[in-house]
Amino acid sequence: MELRHLRYFIAVAEELNFTRAAEKLHIAQPPLSQQIQHLEAELGFQLFRRTKRTVHLTAAGQVFFEEAGKILQQVDRAIQLGRQTSRGELGQLTIGFVSSSAHNVVPAILQAFRIRCPAVKLELHELTTNEQLQRLRFGQIDIGFVRPPVEEEGINSEIVFREPLIVALPETHPAADRTHLELRELSTEPFILFPRSQAAGLYDAIVSLCQQAGFSPIAAQEAIQMQTIVSLVAAEMGVAIVPASMQNFQRSGVVYKALPESTCIVAIALIWRSDPATVQRFLEVARQISGFEI
Hints:
- The chain has 294 residues and is of the alpha/beta class.
- It has helices at 3-15, 18-25, 29-43, 59-86, 106-116, 129-137, 200-212, 226-234, 277-290; strands at residues 48-50, 55-57, 91-97, 120-126, 143-146, 156-170, 190-193, 218-222, 240-243, 254-257, 265-272.
- The protein is 41% helix and 22% strand.
């Protein structure tokens, strides 16, 4: 028995007329009658009672009609799900992201992906760059948003966002109300820094910026999460250099100042290893939203 035999049978059962069923199936009527006869012979029971003028389902035929319809619905569903999966529109993605990326490009990409692929389940984990690289190596995440550079064999990375560095000051700082601030004026201030072991690229960019201004920052405190760094600034524990998008983190007690002399740009990169259909689909959406080629 083949699926087409079930489709032939259902067409006749719905129409209760071999001629109309044949037209519906776009085949000739005699071959359709032969296929139904062969199906009945294979099943070992009669599906229809036929007269010269009428066609009726037998009791067994009625039961078979109901169950055959369920089978074809399940087959059609399986085909649909298979097609969705092959297009990356069904499945699950486990995604890592550094905390600061939640204030720039990540929400827009996630929102767009959810709209275009609502059947893909997203599992999100806030992780440092190093934690994401480790989990990606062991297959514990599929995609990550990290601070580059990423120089590890077997891991793909592409930039999806760039932004300058700015200064975060306590609102009680003498320079908080000024419109102009040069970084060298903060050379004697205690700095709250991101540990280099967690994201060397961001740490090096911050230190390099200070060195360009003629000093090395005095580390008063370290914190892994950017939100924690900003909160410590609000608590007057020191000042900090942070990505510009941290201005989107609403925290009372903090003011942000652009650095006119700053030419240092930091980035967010997507990382991934394998590229099944769901990952490919996510990368397509990320490219469209961020404007960068992936």
